[in-house]
Design goal:
The protein is of the alpha/beta class. Helices cover about 25% and strands about 25% of the residues. Strands 3, 4, 5, 8, 9, 16 and 17 form a seven-stranded mixed beta sheet that branches. It comes from Solanum tuberosum.
Length: about 375
C-alpha cells in the first residue's frame, strides 16, 4: 500500500456546532510520512473531554469536531523509517499525537508537558496545519513516537480507557511513590478515573478506601473493585474517625470537596492529588504547613465545616508537611509502562461497549454519570 492511500476518505462522527450532537462525517487524513503509522481503529473510549469539546465548554472548539482520544486498533501501514511497529501490530493512541521533541520535557519522555504544547489528538493543530480529528473514526495517522504497543492477549476494548483514564491516575501514583505495599490510599469519587485508581492501588498492595456521597456504590467498591473500605464522605463521624489515617488521597471527582477536611485525613507528609476538576480549590494554608485545623475567629468560623471546627480544638491532630498536587495524563514512556503493568497484573477497566450510532445517548449518560465505568465505542464493527 502506498502512502498516498492514506488520503482515502476517513469515516467519522463529528459535532458541527456547540449543541454537541454528533452525526456521520467524511474527511481525509494526511498521507503517511516516513515515520508515521496508520492504524485502523477498533475501539475508542469515551472521555468527559469529549463532552467538553463537542459542546465548546472551553470556548476553543473548531468545528466540525471529531472527538476521541482513547484509541486502539491494528496497524495497516507504516512509513519507511518506522522502527517499532509493523503491519498487523496492536497499538494504541492517547491524548496527544505530537510535541516539539526538543524541550526538556520531551527529552525526558514527558511529552504531555511539552514546552511548546503537545498537539491534542483532536481539535489540535497538526504538523501539516490541519485540525486533528480523533478516534470516533475509521482510521488515524500518527507519528510512531506517540503510538503504544498493546501487550499480547490484552483486549483492545479494555486497553482503550487506559490511554486517558488509566494513565491519568497511574502517573501521579508512580510520581508520588504510591506503589509502596502496606501504605494507605483514599480515592475520592468512583467513576471512570476512580475505579481505576482503586484497581491500581490494590495491585500496588495499598490499603484502599473509597470516599463517596452515594451509599449505592458501596457494594461495587468492595465486592467488585476490591476496595478495603467504603466511607460516606458526608458522614462527619466516619470522616473524623479517619483523622491522620492516609498516606495518599487521589481526588478523581469534578465536584467541589471540603479540602480542609480531606487534609485532616492525611498523615504527616501526606499527599493529596487532584486529577478531577473542581470549580475551586480552597483550604487554610496552615493545614499544609502545621496540619492543625486552625480555629479561626468567629467571623470566619462559619466557613469551616463542623468536622474542621471540632478538630481545631484538639492539638493531637497535628500532622503537617502535606502537599496538594495536580496531574494530567502522562509521557510516552510511562504510558507504555502502564499498559505492560496492566497486562502483567490482569487489570481491566470496567467498560460498556456501544456502537458508534449510540454516541449521542452515551454522551448524555456520561454527563449524568450513568455508566459503570467507561463507555467504549466498537468502531470497527459499527462505523459504516
Amino acid at each position: 500500500m502506498t502512502s498516498a492511500s492514506a488520503n482515502e476518505n476517513c469515516l467519522g462522527w463529528a459535532a458541527r456546532d456547540p449543541s454537541g450532537v454528533l452525526s456521520p462525517y467524511e474527511f481525509n487524513r494526511r498521507a503517511v510520512s516516513s515515520d508515521d503509522v496508520l492504524l485502523d481503529i477498533a475501539f475508542c473510549g469515551m472521555c468527559f473531554a469529549d463532552v467538553l469539546w463537542t459542546r465548546n465548554i472551553l470556548g476553543t472548539s473548531k468545528y466540525p469536531l471529531v472527538p476521541g482520544h482513547e484509541i486502539t486498533g491494528i496497524v495497516r501501514e507504516v512509513g519507511t523509517d518506522v522502527k517499532h511497529f509493523k503491519v498487523g501490530d496492536l497499538v494504541g493512541v492517547g491524548t496527544y499525537v505530537n510535541s516539539c521533541r526538543e524541550c526538556e520535557y520531551c527529552c525526558d519522555e514527558l511529552e504531555v508537558h511539552c514546552s511548546e504544547g503537545a498537539i491534542n489528538t483532536f481539535d489540535g493543530i497538526d504538523v501539516d496545519g490541519t485540525v486533528t480529528k480523533g478516534g470516533y473514526s475509521s482510521y488515524i495517522v500518527v507519528n510512531e513516537r506517540y503510538c503504544f504497543r498493546i501487550p499480547e492477549n490484552y483486549p483492545l476494548a479494555s486497553a482503550a480507557p487506559l490511554l486517558c483514564a488509566g494513565i491519568t491516575v497511574y502517573t501521579p501514583m508512580i510520581r508520588h511513590n504510591m506503589n509502596q505495599p502496606g501504605k494507605s490510599l483514599g480515592v475520592v469519587g468512583l467513576g471512570g478515573l476512580g475505579h481505576l485508581a482503586v484497581k491500581f492501588g490494590k495491585a500496588f498492595g495499598l490499603k484502599v478506601t473509597v470516599f463517596s456521597t452515594s451509599i449505592s456504590k458501596r457494594e461495587e467498591a468492595i465486592n467488585v473493585l476490591g476496595a478495603d473500605k467504603f466511607v460516606i464522605s458526608s458522614d462527619e463521624q466516619q470522616m473524623m474517625a479517619l483523622s491522620k489515617s492516609f498516606d495518599f488521597i487521589i481526588n478523581t471527582a469534578s465536584g467541589d470537596i471540603p479540602f480542609d477536611t480531606y487534609l485532616s485525613l492525611l498523615k504527616t507528609a501526606g499527599v493529596l492529588v487532584l486529577v478531577g476538576f473542581p470549580s475551586e480549590v480552597k483550604f487554610i494554608p496552615g493545614n499544609l504547613i502545621l496540619g492543625i485545623i486552625f480555629y479561626i475567629c468567629s467571623q470566619f468560623e462559619a466557613r469551616l465545616c463542623s468536622i474542621c471546627r471540632t478538630l481545631a480544638k484538639n492539638e493531637s491532630f497535628l500532622a503537617g508537611m502535606k502537599s496538594i498536587v495536580g496531574s494530567v495524563t502522562g509521557g510516552t514512556k510511562q504510558t507504555q509502562e502502564m499498559l505492560d503493568f496492566c497486562a502483567s497484573h490482569k487489570i481491566y477497566p470496567e467498560i460498556e461497549i456501544v456502537p458508534i450510532q449510540y454516541v449521542n445517548e452515551a454522551l448524555e449518560r456520561l454527563m449524568k454519570k450513568d455508566v459503570k465505568y467507561r463507555f467504549v465505542i466498537d468502531v470497527a464493527n459499527s462505523i459504516k
